[in-house]
């Protein structure tokens, strides 16, 4: 059973990695995919701390060479890195059934959720002591998927399965950043495998100590009047009670995970870049505000949103986080 | 009262700071070029330039404009003396009902100010936020290419 699950998700994972060249065309990193974003042409640049690595081109055209810090381009060195960096094992919550154990296998292996959600050690390998504890990836913060999950609403198996397959769930905000592409690919995966992953991950997050959803509009407006003005004119038409989006069943910002995270990164990235599925692909949409809001205005808005929709303490150094996020934006 | 730098001149307006720029332009200043399509940043009919960058004026508050220069389609030319982008849209007969066109013109103007000789892929990516329900996209693309070729 696990073998069959593994094989079918394997083919999908390969397809997803290759197709990333196309998916990434919507918001290309500084240099566009060398393959022009064509499927299977690869060439998508990944800026890593070691240098730029390009996804593999499996068409007959030549791929661009990787630009790694010397001597990391010398491939035999990888063997010693691998020897020093054992694969992290998945945490096993008590009471997992067979489906949950299959989910654990898929999450740790082919789903490779830890590539983004697990922090890295000094060798930039996944830290085996902190699996799925939350980490920075591609300029975004991939939040913890275990007991440290900051999600204000519980991630039930049903919620998580729907989210992984559509990028949306009735009780959480939409998938943003690199997670958008993940959910678009998982929409093509066998349902029962996504279900198994949802069973496992919801068990991992089930004992999280959740923040209570709040809406402290008046106090937030007193503290951040400019942020409140921007919210009223730029955000409320979709996100306030009674808006068209809310009437269609989308939840309040109070239940979104980013506003309860321990850093402002994701909120800032969502404001700047919005949610923009690649041309011709379905998915949740939000317009980008990078060109209409100045850095100071993004700071005001971010601080207002945190004060309004979270009981957690205010974020420190939002201006610094905005400057960092801008460097990654076009 | 807010001072707006608009189409090369300075205007003072009395709308409150949280008012979307689109309403200020249309209702207070009587500039009806930018259109209300969805009010949600999903259609692009309201597109104007803020310091040469195209933005959805329906989701840009008056208070957030600050000292950035606002350019609307009225700022590109007049009926008797249309600007280069407007002439290109006319030459290619890119409008059908015309509702999206002011937004398309401004989105295209923003592209050429940043990238005077865009590739086909750059034109398509830049115009992606703007929708045309009549389906004149191919003529709109021709108009943008036309403008890029005839201006230097």
Q: State the end-to-end distance of chain A.
A: 45 Å
Overall morphology of chain A? globular
Q: In whole angstroms, how far apart are the ends of chain B?
A: 39 Å
Biggest sheet layout of chain A: 3 strands, antiparallel
- Largest interface here, residues on each chain? A-B, 24 and 26 residues
pLDDT averaged residue by residue of chain B = 96
User: What's the number of extended β-strand segments of chain B?
Assistant: 5
Q: What structural class do the secondary elements of chain B suggest? A: alpha+beta
How many H/I helical runs of chain A? Answer: 13
Number of strands of chain A: 5
Strand order across the largest sheet of chain B: 4-3-5
Shape by Cα distribution of chain B: globular
Strand composition percent of chain B? 5-15%
**How would you name the oligomeric state of the polypeptide chains in this document?**
heterodimer
Helix content of chain A: 40-55%
Helix and strand composition category of chain A: mainly alpha
Order of helices and strands of chain A: HEEEHHHEEHHHHHHHHH
Compose a concise summary of this entry.
Chain A has helices at 2-23, 76-84, 98-108, 114-117, 157-166, 178-186, 191-205, 217-223, 225-239, 244-247, 265-273, 295-309, 318-328; strands spanning 45-48, 51-54, 67-68, 135-137, 140-142. By secondary structure, chain A is mainly alpha-helical. Chain B has helices at residues 21-28, 62-65, 84-91, 101-114, 120-127, 137-150; strands at residues 2-6, 9-13, 47-50, 53-56, 70-71.
What does this structure look like?
The complex is a heterodimer of chains A (330) and B (152). By secondary structure, chain A is mostly helical. Chain A contains 13 helices and 5 strands. In chain B, helix 3 packs across helix 6 (137-150) and helix 4 (101-114) runs parallel beside helix 6 (137-150). The mean pLDDT of chain B is 96. At the A-B interface, helix 9 of A face strand 4, helix 2 and helix 5 of B.
Write the layout of secondary structure elements.
The complex is a heterodimer of chains A (330) and B (152).
Chain A: H1 2-23, E1 45-48, E2 51-54, E3 67-68, H2 76-84, H3 98-108, H4 114-117, E4 135-137, E5 140-142, H5 157-166, H6 178-186, H7 191-205, H8 217-223, H9 225-239, H10 244-247, H11 265-273, H12 295-309, H13 318-328
Antiparallel strand pairs in A: 1-2, 2-3, 4-5
Helix pairs in contact in A: 1-6, 3-7, 5-6, 5-7, 8-9, 8-12, 9-12, 11-13, 12-13
Chain B: E1 2-6, E2 9-13, H1 21-28, E3 47-50, E4 53-56, H2 62-65, E5 70-71, H3 84-91, H4 101-114, H5 120-127, H6 137-150
Antiparallel strand pairs in B: 1-2, 3-4, 3-5
Helix pairs in contact in B: 3-6, 4-6
């Amino acid at each position: 059973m696990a073998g069959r699950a593994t094989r079918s998700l394997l083919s999908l994972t390969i397809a997803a990695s290759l197709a990333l060249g196309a998916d990434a065309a919507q918001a290309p990193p500084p240099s566009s995919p060398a393959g022009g974003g064509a499927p299977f042409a690869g060439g998508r640049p990944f800026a890593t701390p070691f240098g730029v690595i390009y996804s593999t081109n499996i068409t007959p055209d030549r791929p661009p060479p990787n630009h790694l810090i010397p001597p990391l381009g010398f491939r035999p060195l990888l063997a010693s890195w691998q020897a020093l960096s054992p694969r992290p094992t998945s945490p096993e919550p008590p009471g997992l059934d067979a489906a949950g154990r299959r989910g654990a296998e898929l999450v740790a292996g082919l789903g490779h959720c830890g590539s983004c959600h697990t922090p890295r050690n000094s060798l930039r390998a996944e830290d085996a002591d902190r699996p799925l504890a939350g980490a920075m990836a591609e300029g975004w913060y991939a939040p913890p998927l275990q007991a440290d999950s900051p999600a204000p609403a519980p991630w039930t198996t049903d919620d998580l399965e729907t989210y992984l397959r559509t990028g949306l769930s009735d009780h959480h905000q939409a998938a943003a950043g690199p997670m958008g592409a993940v959910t678009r690919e998982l929409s093509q995966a066998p349902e029962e495998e996504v279900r198994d992953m949802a069973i496992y991950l919801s068990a991992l997050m089930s004992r999280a100590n959740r923040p209570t959803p709040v809406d402290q509009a008046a106090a937030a407006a007193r503290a951040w009047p400019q942020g409140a003005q921007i919210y009223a004119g730029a955000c409320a038409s979709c996100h306030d009670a009674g808006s068209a989006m809310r009437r269609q069943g989308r939840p309040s910002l109070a239940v979104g995970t980013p506003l309860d995270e321990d850093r402002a990164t994701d909120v800032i990235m969502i404001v700047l870049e919005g949610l923009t599925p690649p041309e011709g692909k379905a998915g949740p949409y939000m317009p980008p505000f990078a060109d209409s809001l100045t850095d100071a205005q993004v700071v005001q808005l971010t601080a207002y949103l945190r004060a309004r929709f979270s009981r957690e303490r205010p974020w420190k150094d939002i201006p610094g986080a905005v400057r960092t996020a801008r460097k990654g934006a076009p | 009262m807010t001072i707006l730098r608009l189409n090369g001149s300075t205007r003072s307006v009395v709308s409150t700071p949280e008012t979307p720029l689109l309403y200020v332009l249309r209702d207070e200043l009587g500039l009806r070029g930018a259109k209300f399509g969805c009010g949600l940043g999903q259609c692009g009919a309201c597109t104007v330039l803020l310091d040469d960058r195209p933005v959805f004026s329906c989701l840009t508050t008056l208070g957030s404009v600050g000292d950035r220069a606002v350019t609307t389609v009225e700022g590109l030319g007049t009926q008797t003396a249309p600007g280069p982008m407007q002439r290109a849209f006319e030459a290619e007969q890119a409008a059908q009902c015309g509702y999206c066109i002011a937004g398309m013109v401004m989105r295209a103007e923003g592209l050429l100010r940043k990238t005077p000789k865009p590739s086909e892929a750059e034109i398509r990516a830049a115009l992606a936020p703007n929708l045309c329900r009549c389906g004149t996209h191919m003529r709109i693309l021709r108009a943008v290419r036309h403008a890029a070729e005839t201006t230097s």
